[in-house]
Design a protein that fits this description.
Blueprint: H1 8-31, E1 33-37, E2 46-51, E3 54-58, H2 65-77, E4 82-88, H3 93-96, H4 99-105, E5 107-113, H5 121-132, E6 136-138, E7 145-148, E8 151-157, E9 173-178, E10 181-185, H6 191-200, E11 208-210, H7 222-228, E12 232-235, H8 248-256, E13 260-263, H9 264-267, E14 270-274, E15 279-283, H10 287-296, H11 301-311, E16 313-314, H12 320-323, H13 331-343, H14 361-367, E17 371-372
Parallel strand pairs: 3-4, 4-5, 5-6, 10-11, 11-12, 12-13, 16-17
Antiparallel strand pairs: 1-2, 1-14, 2-3, 7-8, 8-9, 9-10, 14-15
């Protein structure tokens, strides 16, 4: 039988040891990197908790008030009080739409922006808000980098002026390094920029990639995916979106390269926690659960076809805001589309939209399967 007798001195020492171990454990947990891919429907919004109480928000979802409210609520639940950086990858509405409300709700240190000018009212309001709040505004370029918490951010694109890029390809692309791990954030870049990134970074391998452009088939070339060889691929995408994102062949490409694919439409909020060597992924719901739920509600082919037609944008009745969702269509071109249909009695076939000034074959081919005339 053991007889434990502790002197006051030994008791005090034991308490100090326990306190030290507890504090060390809490500090280690606090220093872990956490990346939250917030479920905002068809858009991007990513919270990076870089350790030491430092936070980065990458993009701000779409312009619907409900989306901004969802992001703000999510950030507050993570006890975020200050955003040290907002990284605005490019000025499409599904990436900057909620930023005005977010800036109203949190202290913001610096906004990092691609510098690509857009004619939309959403972009104008975003710039006005930054100016009103006197927030530091910078346009990083390839080679720029900074440290935050225990992480390093390095920008890989764009290389110089963005005048030669369209909105998607003007996206800020950056690498987040934490310990031995690398995480790549790609905005909405397409294959043209992917090729350039491969030439500049031929040996780059990453643990995680934020899949470019919501899994569109205009991005994620096979050479790009094979070279990066990601273990995780996260697609920020909304359920039943009329763009058809993500493309089935893109999802399969990542899977064939050994990546585990996560999607907001199937998994809800996706949180990756990393310690510099290992990572863990937590989701709101598993893919299998969501698949079973979907299959149990499968409708006849006729009903599915009707649903698909309802998801198309009717160019004879669509508002400016609806038309602005199409790739390469801003408010000015949307107004031209409306003027054309009013002056010509409407469109009789979708190809007729190419008669509108500013719409060429390239733009039409991007979304011809997403529009209708009835």
């Amino acid at each position: 039988m053991f007889n434990f007798k502790l002197t006051k001195k030994k008791t005090a020492l034991l308490i100090l040891i326990i306190l030290f171990l507890t504090l060390f454990s809490l500090n280690s947990t606090a220093q872990n990197l956490k990346i939250h891919f917030i479920d905002v429907g068809q858009g991007d919004a990513i919270l990076i908790e870089a350790g030491g109480g430092k936070n980065i928000l990458v993009d701000g979802g779409d312009r619907a008030n409900s989306i901004a409210a969802r992001i703000i609520d999510y950030l507050k639940k993570q006890e975020v009080k200050r955003l040290d950086y907002i990284i605005s990858t490019h000025p499409h509405a599904d990436h900057i739409g909620g930023l005005v409300d977010i800036i109203n709700s949190f202290e913001v240190g610096i906004v990092l922006d691609s510098g690509k000018i857009h004619s939309s009212k959403t972009y104008e309001n975003y710039l006005i808000k930054i100016d009103q709040e006197n927030i530091d505004f910078k346009t990083p370029r390839r080679g720029d980098e900074f440290e935050i918490g225990s992480s390093r951010i390095s920008f890989l694109h764009p290389k110089g002026p963005v005048d030669n890029y369209d909105l998607n390809n003007s996206s800020l692309v950056f690498l987040l390094e934490y310990g031995e791990q690398k995480f790549l954030f790609t905005g909405d870049i397409e294959k043209e920029v992917e090729k350039d990134l491969l030439q500049e970074n031929p040996e780059l391998n990453v643990a995680l990639i934020k899949v470019p452009h919501h899994g569109s088939k205009t991005s994620s070339s096979s050479s790009f995916v094979k070279s990066l060889s990601p273990e995780l691929a996260v697609i920020q995408v909304g359920a039943d979106n009329h763009y058809g994102h993500p493309a089935a062949e893109v999802t399969k490409l990542y899977q064939n390269q050994g990546a585990r694919v996560y999607r907001n439409d199937l998994n809800g909020n996706i949180v990756v926690t990393a310690d510099g060597k290992n990572y863990a992924v937590k989701v709101d719901q598993s893919w299998e659960q969501n698949l079973n739920r979907t299959e149990s509600k499968t409708k006849p082919v006729e009903a599915a076809a009707a649903k698909k037609n309802n998801n198309l944008i009717n160019i004879n009745t669509a508002s400016k805001a609806d038309l602005d969702q199409l790739w390469g269509i801003g408010p000015a071109t949307a107004e031209k589309i409306i003027d054309y249909r009013q002056n010509n009695g409407g469109f009789t076939q979708i190809e007729e939209i190419k008669n509108v000034d500013g719409i060429d074959d390239g733009k039409f081919n991007r979304w011809q399967d997403k529009i209708s005339v009835k």
